[in-house]
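2024-03-11 09:14:02 DEBUG pipeline.ingest accepted 1 chain
2024-03-11 09:14:02 DEBUG pipeline.ingest length=125
2024-03-11 09:14:03 DEBUG pipeline.predict start
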Amino acid sequence: MRLTSYPVRLTDQNIAQVAAGAMLLVDCLDNALGRHVVLAHARAAGIASVHAGLAADGTFGLVRWGEHFTPDAEDEPGQATCEGGEHLPFIGLVAAGVAGAVRDFVRDGTRRDAIITLAGLTVGG
């Protein structure tokens, strides 16, 4: 298995090339358009996808598999992003959650969604 990252903005025009040969797409994007591109391609190509994100106010994070995921209709103006440095420790917790989800998928195909808050972690089936 090989992990590859591409430092490009995903679009409908480049997603097929970027995702060529992938068995899993991992989305940790902070914009609705990118999430839509990843999810639509994964569904059309029959590729598994897992999505991780943080609520704009930093109160919770999600790890959702593509079959349970609905991208945000629109980003909120002024919401916290990775670039702004807000919520960085919490972003780390959500990243750990998605890393565990990827590990379980690669190990045995398990797909568990999770809600992550500062009070704890709730994992679903």
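2024-03-11 09:14:41 DEBUG pipeline.report Residues 26 and 99 are 9 Å apart (CA to CA).
2024-03-11 09:14:41 DEBUG pipeline.predict end
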